[in-house]
Amino acid sequence: MKQIVYKIATVVDWRQAVTDGFYAGSADDVRDGFIHLSSKSQLSGTLEKHFSGKTDLVLVAFEEQKLDPHLKWEASRGGALFPHYYGRLAVASASWERKLEMGPSGSHIIQDEWFVC
């Protein structure tokens, strides 16, 4: 089974990445020296903590093996291991992208069918 990791980015930043051929990271990524990614189980928490109330977001999926050797799982929030990518993410290595919509409660909607292979 393929392991997938995800990047949440602004639509504007991801469109620029598509134009450039690579994603160099958000301001937070640049500050921290790596691109913050999440596993599927970490997505809701990441959205709540870092993207609450923000619109115009996209979720981008990457196969873990395509990111080797620059992908590292490192302790972060509460000691949990999070995927961190050291370098520029090639847009061509993305498996898919989906626009994140806001639900009536103000939370982002993650569609279960996005994760069905």
TrEMBL record:
Domain of life of the native organism: Bacteria
Gene3D superfamilies hit by this protein: Protein of unknown function DUF952
Membrane spanning stretches: none
Protein name stated in the entry: Dihydroorotate dehydrogenase
Origin species: Hyphomicrobium denitrificans (strain ATCC 51888 / DSM 1869 / NCIMB 11706 / TK 0415)
Organism lineage string: Bacteria, Pseudomonadati, Pseudomonadota, Alphaproteobacteria, Hyphomicrobiales
